[in-house]
Each structure stands twice: as C-alpha cells, then as structure tokens.
Amino acid sequence: MWPKRFLALVVLATFHRTSAECPNGTFDCGDGQCISEDHRCDGDNDCETGLDEADCPQQWCPAPDTLCDGRCLPQSWRCDGERQCSDGADEDGCDACSLKHCSQGCKFVAGEAMCYCTTGFRLLEDGVGCEDEDECADDTHNCEQTCINLPGAYRCSCMPGYKTVNTTLCQADGPEPLLFYCDNQKVYGVWMRSNQTFYVGAGEKRARVVDFDGDTNRVYWAGSKERSLYYCYMNSTDCKMLSITSYSNSQIDGLAFDWVTGNLY
C-alpha cells in the first residue's frame, strides 16, 4: 500500500509539470498541460488556457476570399495582374477565365472561374451568355406611367399632357392643380405641386361639403349646422350667404357646381 502523501505528490506532478517536462511532439499549454503538437492551430481550443490557438496564422477564409500568406486575399485582387501572394498563387490558373468564353465578365468564386453579367442583364442557363432583363415586363421599374425597355436599362416616359419629373415621375402640363376640402369646420385649399395649404374664410360656419368655380374663383360650401349655402372668393375673407330656392328639411350631404349652367346642385 502506497502512503497517501506519496500518491498526492504523484498526482500533483502529473497535472503541474513545467514546459521542460512536455515530451517532444507535444505542446505546452502554459499551465502544465501537454497536448499533441498536431492540435496546435487546428481551430479548436484543446488547451484550457487557449494558448494552442493563440498567434496562429490564418488557416481559412470566408468565400469568395482566398488564403494567401496567412491572410485573406479579397476576391477583387484575384487575377488582377498583380502578384499579392509570395508564391504567386493569386495569379495562378487565371487563364481559366479565357477558357470560359464569358459573354460579359468572369470572376473567381471559391477558386473557380465563373461568368457574370453586368447590371441590367441576367446569366443564361449555359452559364456563359447574358440576356437583357426586361424591367418593364418584370415590373421592377420605378416609372409612374410608361416604361420603355432598353438594353441593360429602361427609361420612363409620360402620357400626352404630362411631362417627366425626376426621370420617373409625371406632372400634368398647365397651371398648378388646386384641391379644396373641408373637415366639418373649415374650408382649405391645397396647391398640389408646392403642397402649400391656405384657409378659405368663414370656418365658423361648420363647412360640410365644398365645390369650386374656376372661372370666378368662387368657393362654395354648405354648413351642416345652419343648413345654409355660402360662397367666398378664393383670396378673400368676405363671404356671403346664398338664398336657397328649393330646399328640403334634410341635411345637405353633397354639393356640385355645374360650370356649364352656373347652377349649384
């Protein structure tokens, strides 16, 4: 039977050896732990201290970059005519692109020559040729009205009576459109292009419906509370009440100005 004190010394010596005691072909983890030299820089922390993965050269690179002299070489530097790797590996096999006979462009992806197409074209099933992408037919354009397909691109146009704005939008010819609306309190006018809003007088009349006579610049509205009709010139606050020749006791729910006869309905 071994003395307990002797056994404790043996165990202590096993787990707390110095680096000088690690045999050949092993790596010292710095805390007395020895691991196989094959586990050094293998991507796994075999040492509890992690020293086996410290100061290791780059062993792999995310696609499509290439490992070169312990560092990752960007894909754009591959086959660019300039030698970046000490062994010239970044310029090896570059004639593979010339053998692909790509119709537009060739690049290396994960070490393999691949054809690609420029913007506005798509790669054919043969992996070599390119065809035009019809953005108009695919409905991937930004045109507001009409789309005209071009090789590798498209162009926007507008219908008669409109002009192109900012290459994609269409704007009606002629004077700036004007919109009138009410919110059961006031009557507002909005210039549609400049987005400027102005107030038409007599908002205290609780306007419910509104219409506009473009020839005289008169704004007409009906007050829901008083059941009355009013008008005011667009740039005036002097508003008038209209006499009603035929009117039921029901509430006014609609108002329309007939620009041909000059009548209100």
UniProtKB/TrEMBL annotation:
Matching Pfam families: EGF_CA, Ldl_recept_a
Top-rank lineage group of the source organism: Eukaryota
Cystine connections: 22-34, 29-47, 41-56, 79-94
Gene3D superfamilies named in the record: Laminin, Low-density Lipoprotein Receptor, TolB, C-terminal domain
Organism per entry: Ornithodoros turicata
InterPro entries: 6-blade_b-propeller_TolB-like, EGF, EGF-like_Ca-bd_dom, EGF-type_Asp/Asn_hydroxyl_site, EGF_Ca-bd_CS, Growth_fac_rcpt_cys_sf, LDL_receptor-like_sf, LDLR-related
GO MF annotation, one: hormone binding
Example of a GO cellular component annotation carried by this entry: apical plasma membrane
Coiled coil feature spans: none
The UniProt record lists the keyword Membrane: yes
Signal sequence coordinates: 1-20
The protein's name: Putative vitellogenin receptor
Domain EGF-like: residue ranges: 132-171
Keywords, ordered alphabetically: Disulfide bond, EGF-like domain, Membrane, Receptor, Repeat, Signal, Transmembrane, Transmembrane helix
GO biological process terms on file: receptor-mediated endocytosis
